[in-house]
Amino acid sequence: MLIPVILSGGAGTRLWPLSREGYPKQFLPLVGERTMIQETALRSAGLTGVTGPIVVCNEAHRFLVAEQLRALGIVPRAILLEPSGRNTAPAVAVAALAAVAGALRDGMKAPPLLLVLPADHALSDLAAFQRAVTSAIPAAREGRLVTFGVVPTRPETGFGYIRQAAGQAAARPVAEFVEKPDAQRASAMVKSGDYFWNSGMFLLPAQGYLDELGRLDPAMLASCRKAYEAAASDLDFIRLDKAAFEACRADSIDYAVMEKTDRASVVSLSAGWSDVGSFSALQEALGADANGNVTRGDVVAEDATDCLLYSTDRLVAAVGLQGHVVIETKDAVMVAPKGRAQDVKQLVERMKKAGRPEPGLHREVFRPWGSYDSVDAGPRFQVKRLTVKPGAKLSLQKHAHRAEHWVVVKGTARITRDHEVYDLKENESTYIPIGAVHRIENPGSEPVQIIEVQSGGYLGEDDIVRLDDTYGRKGRTD
Fold first, then answer.
1. Could you tell me what percent of the chain has a pLDDT over 90?
2. Which letter, b or e, does each residue of 253-292 get, where b requires 16 or more Cβ atoms within 10 Å of its Cβ?
3. What is the structure's pLDDT at 360?
4. Closest CA to 454 of 414, 390, 400
5. Domain boundaries, the chain
6. Which of 51, 75, 108, 305 is 20–30 Å from 41 (CA)?
7. Does domain 2-269 have CATH number 3.10.560.10?
8. Measured in whole angstroms, how far is the alpha carbon of residue 132 from the centre of its chain?
């Protein structure tokens, strides 16, 4: 049994303002029509004996994960919710615990193998990837911890490297892990032909990984086991125990296990891999025109070369730019020379320290029932456009500090206001006074759009008291 494990805990701050903490890059269609996590979920579909995936994600992203898998018709074996990030070693450990428990529950005779995949990587050659995985299976069945080493296409100082031992087998023992090198050493390693980029993808025997983690870091395994065994079911999700998981030491699978074990093997991979970890990597993954430019959205460029020009909402017009990145979203525009694009991360940290909301959320925020787009705001008022999916409904709630005016501009909405329940059609409106218990439902088969005008002394999203909720958020503000 081959179980994909999709690690979806990253925030992707180097791709701000496209990627944000509340809606990071794995949920965006950056390199194709599907989002990155959707492409990752489909990546193992042609392999023999593969099951639905186990996804490990931040609890704030749970509905995004569930909705994007549902759109593909993929039923996950489990969605494990991390109360806070503890890096990849604990994430893989709780996935392994879930895989072993599930195999026992289902009466599976073959020990499960875990195909560990970051949710935010891109591959252009799916067949080559699947051949590499198939060639790694015998070694994993023998108890080896297999990592996939990307055949380098250039000297790269931004990646770690793996040196393979001599031999002819598809999966060779790992001779050495190398930290990110300087340019001279990177060039020498690439020329040697014995080094690969460290991809962060693995094929692991589930129990074998747990055994090795227990030998190398028993405290980490104990914390993960406690967090999993004390986990609570929440709709289609498994919430890891907060206290136990947060007591776990944060570490990557490379540092905690792979660099210390004598059971590590590497299989070479040449499949057009990219971690899409920067705007330069995104530009390379998308492919450029004759002038070296990559354009997305509504873009007009004159006398521009080697640029990434990306529009999501408005016209971006550029004249005379060379080697620049210009990214436009509804609420932010980021401009940087390509050589400084990595420094976007420092820019995001500066905005966080200033208390700005843009690092965390886009202007349009997605919820399990649909989304809201903050159109305008000022002293004591805020205007939003709500989109409610067919059959969905917001929580039954009330506010202590704000009143709301609703105008339906598309579809028919069913409104609960205290003891009243009534339908509003297009061009009809209603008023929700402060303290009134209320709810919006969409009883139809098409999305409903509502313009909401909030007024009051405090308009924060935490001014919500949920009395009932279809999505298990009663008593929560997310």
1. 90
2. bbebbbbebebbbbbbbbbebbbbbbbbbbbbbbeeeeee
3. 93
4. 400
5. 2-269, 282-350, 364-468
6. 108
7. no
8. 24
Cα distances (angstroms) measured from residue 356 to each of 228, 350, 432: 35, 9, 29
Name the amino acid, one letter, at 426: E
Retrieve residue 207's tokens: 């129990």
Question: In the chain, which residues have pLDDT < 50?
Answer: none
Q: What pLDDT is attached to residue 324?
A: 97
In the CATH hierarchy, which top-level class contains the domain 364-468?
A: mainly beta
**What is the pLDDT at residue 315?**
98
Residue that is written with structure tokens 């489990």 in the block: 78
The structure tokens 């020990």 sit at 111
pLDDT, one tens digit per residue, over 262-287 is 999 999 999 999 999 999 999 999 98
pLDDT at site 362: 92
pLDDT in tens, 355-372: 999 999 999 999 999 999
Tokens read off for 427: 């061009």
pLDDT of residue 169: 87
Q: What is the pLDDT of residue 146?
A: 98
pLDDT at 228: 98
Per-residue pLDDT at 434: 97
Q: How far is residue 441's CA from residue 391's CA, in Å, rounded to a whole number?
A: 7
